[in-house]
Amino acid sequence: MMAVGDDAVAVERRSGDHQRESQRVVARLPGPHRDLDAEYAILGATLELLGERGYSRLTMDEVAQRAHVGKATIYRRWPSKLPLVIDAVRRPADTQIPVPNTGSLDGDVLALIKTFLTALAEPLGIGLARLLADAAPNPGLRHIVYKELIRARQDSLRVVVERAIERGEVDRDADVDMLLELAAAAVLHRLVVSDEPFDEDFAARVARLLLLGVRPRQPSAEQPEPLLVPDGFER
Prior knowledge:
- The chain is an all-alpha fold.
- Helices cover 69% and strands 0% of the residues.
- The chain is elongated.
- It starts with a helix and ends in a 23-residue tail after the last helix.
């Protein structure tokens, strides 16, 4: 399983401090403001607890205690744990993932790796990674994890590879769908099955191996043979 590390703990603490400060400020406001603050506090507490305990061990009692609300307030909005967790994960994930455009395939892939690793150290990424262990038998969880953790990154990688095809860095006959599936499989194996960390070194080695399989067999005169030398890649 992936080790969260001190950076992720620091991010979680900052998230918790921000949530508690928002509660103190907005709780003094009347009417709808208080309702919005309660919702924000509940979703934030759910995301924090998800990262700490995982889905199977998360309880509505704990969410209520962490959010400083009554359980009735939670059940008025969410009838059970599953829709609550889905909302908690979906809200911060709604922002679109930027697609890097460094001008080269290696540079773009390296940038994607770094943003993915950064995301995994944030509360949302930690929560999604913990959800992986519980997602297999639950279609609702499986869908949200796939959509927010895997599919969004696959879409960005597809754009990067399609640009590289136009530049002549990737063979036009390359099986892009299989490339995306193999990349996702490597990520999921390291996060769920293996005891080894998912870090930049591992991700770069996987990227190097996969990209070698889609490079043009005979690079054109205009396109020098790739050396895979940006930071994080090995020649």
